[in-house]
Write a structure and sequence with these properties.
Blueprint (H helix, E strand, L loop, with lengths): L1 E10 L2 E11 L4 E5 L6 H9 L6 E6 L2 E2 L5 H7 L1 E4 L11 H6 L8 H10 L1 H5 L10 H13 L5 E5 L7 H18 L2 E6 L2 H7 L2 E6 L2 E7 L5 H8 L2
The structure holds adenosine-5'-triphosphate and magnesium ion (MG).
Adenosine-5'-triphosphate binds next to strand 2 and helix 1.
Length: 229
Amino acid sequence: MLSVANLNVGYGLSQVIHDVSFKVNPEEILVIMGRNGMGKTTLLKSLIGILPAREGCIRLGDREVTAMAPHERVREGIAFVPQGRLIFPSLTVEENILTGAKGRLDKSVWDEIYALFPVLSEMRKRKGGNLSGGQQQQLAIARALVTNPKVLVLDEPTEGIQPSIIKDIARALKEIRRARKIAVIVSEQVVSFMMDLCDRALVIERGRFVHEAPREHLDADKVKSLLSV
Ligand SMILES: Nc1ncnc2c1ncn2[C@@H]1O[C@H](COP(=O)(O)OP(=O)(O)OP(=O)(O)O)[C@@H](O)[C@H]1O
Ligand SMILES: [Mg+2]
């Protein structure tokens, strides 16, 4: 679905992502684990086009998107839920969701979103800035979903969120994959969330992948040890 080959990304003189290659398959949930500062956000921002690739190639299906602007990549089918959520605090829940849409949304889409995230239905007229962190995270996912992605990319969706809401988010992402038949890429540091969610996991360290395992061979202790080095 999405494939990345020999990607290099950096800031000024510092190179952060070193010659990274990976794929995510249709309907696969790929979790990229890494400690603070290891390059998760840098990698994901380059997938959506907020940061340019210095070298390498990013493809969505058979379309190369490496040189496309972020809004063009969204149109191609890559949606991004940024770290820290970045919802619009002064817009209502409904208005926030509509910023992801091209125009009006069909009732069936609202029904789908509110079935995934019942709390957003209760708060549809409330300002985004007055939601809790977990509710804002759900709102950010809903906003990304209405762009009709083929690949949904989320940067540390559990950061600063309480365990019960983390479980809700994992459940919603699995339901989104099942209902929409899309691929999901998630960066994370929470091992239990990874174990709950992923089909395959990668561990990134200083801009390179140092470990990869499919769900059936995933060893939580091994990943924990890599994250605690
Ligand atoms: N705008 C920037 N300019 C220069 N260096 C940056 C910039 N943003 C990040 N970096 C550096 O790039 C490296 C990777 O940062 P990145 O934000 O991708 O890590 P991360 O894995 O997302 O970390 P976290 O878990 O804390 O979000 C770090 O060394 C960081 O200091
Ligand atoms: Mg980050």
